[in-house]
Amino acid sequence: MPTKYIIVTGGVLSGLGKGIAVASIGHLLSSRLKIIPIKCDGYLNVDPGTMNPFEHGEVFVLDDGGEVDMDFGHYERFLGVTCKSKWNLTMGKVFEMVREKERRGDYLGKTVQYIPHVTDVIKGHIFEIVEEEKPDLVLVEIGGTVGDIENELFLEAMRQMREDVSRENIIYVHLTYVPIPYGVNEQKSKPTQQSVNLLKQRGIFPDIIIGRCSQFLTKEVKSKISNFCDVAPEAVITGLDVDDIYEIPIIFEKEGLPEIIHKKLNIYSPPDLRKWKSYIDNIRHPTEEITVAMCGKYTRLEDSYASILEAFNHCSAHLRCKIKVKWVETTDLKDPRVLEDVDGILVPGGFGSRGTEGKIQAIKVAREKNIPFLGLCLGLQLAVIEFARNVCGLQGANSTEIDPNTPYAVIDILPEQRNVVNKGGTMRLGAYEAVFKEGTKVRSLYGTDRASERHRHRYEVNPEFHEILQEHGMVFSGVSKDGRLVEFIELPGHKYFVATQSHPELKSRMERPAPLFYGFIKACLEKD
Ligand code: GLN
Questions:
Q1: Of ligand 1's atoms, which has the minimum distance to the CA of residue 411?
Q2: 504 Cβ closer than 6 Å to some ligand 1 atom
Q3: Strand ranges (DSSP E) for 351-474?
Q4: Which positions are annotated as active-site residues?
Q5: What would the pLDDT profile of 357-396 be if each residue is shown by its tens digit?
Q6: Model pTM?
């Protein structure tokens, strides 16, 4: 069977949940097909690694070290695939490739132009992925909204693809918005019509239209959209507003989306949502409730902690509990006693010094009051600092990221990393294996003697302080194979005091919640 393609574009507004829609389509078709998701982003950054989480939400990190758009988190979680950084194509990368080719003389004296040279690079990249992965189906999400200057070249490349891969192997799905204006109380199709017109002006004729709406689309509005936009009425699908994103595959199934796709692309992969539904049922009908304090500085934007919140959902699905998040902005944590009434304290990753003293205070409360604690990346580093200061007596201990003149640099850049200066290149990125110590909580939670988790950081626990930390009772439950890097720590005798230099939330899945999260939430549920 030739590889099939589904191209997903968005119209009317941004933020309609195109990533979730793509992931949900993939979920519905994944039972018998090998699916590769590809995301095209119009910005000129090479990757989102250098972007502030306030601007673009969480930076998602892949096994291969790629820093990619957070939609890859949805793809991995909904499709059960391990994505590669090559699958996130930004205009920054495209221009870099075009420039390289031009300098190499590949264009043989020709004027280098948007069409065909830039569009050829975009298509060439996609075909290279297809060559490497040999998928049954490629799902391409075009970031942004039709009409944006930024995604014009991607749209043009997608239009050209129809001829390259032959018409019967490609369909176009357009996600739009169907408002119900206040006082009018009727679903309005005009924005969809206008958006589809913009798409048609670019030579793309959608096969399926998904209308995001606060209600199921009525028969009338479906038939109107069908009439004006030249799609069959059954190919107009509701993208209902929902409280949790796991609902979307169920709604798409109800609306008949898999059948339409099967018919149009001549593929067959019947969805099986039984397990998925039972997880959602557990999330919906909790038997217990806990509150976890999330101590961070990006607390204003929940998207910057998307994977952590997902990992909580995965735990809820297995432990049947509601996890309420208390957002604690540590920059102005005046009284850490506000934390004493929570069931657990989580200190997530972060960069820079703002808010770190507040987080250290929160960790102290967790340690001293026997409140379950989970530290992620910066969370581990600050737990080590707190322990060094208050248990080992190393006054003023710190990370050189926060205080370059600290007398005790318990967290530092290791000599091998010091020489790298380019911001994009200094980080330890991607999956690394840690070896677990026997008899530790971490090892028993993973149920194995080693595990690989994803990393994104520059600093490490300074080997010069390994001995003193351990002498005072900190257990290094997981270290790198050469023993030089501390990957997991825990404090014995505490209800649950565990931290890791990695980001286990990135690999958490509905079917298998990240072990450290599972252990943490379980500990939070144990009332004294
Ligand atoms: N800022 C710290 C470092 O670079 C931690 C990074 C993180 O939490 N992801 O090492």
A1: 10
A2: no
A3: 373-376, 398-399, 409-412, 428-436, 450-457, 460-461
A4: 377, 503, 505
A5: 999 999 999 999 999 999 999 999 999 999 999 999 999 9
A6: 0.89
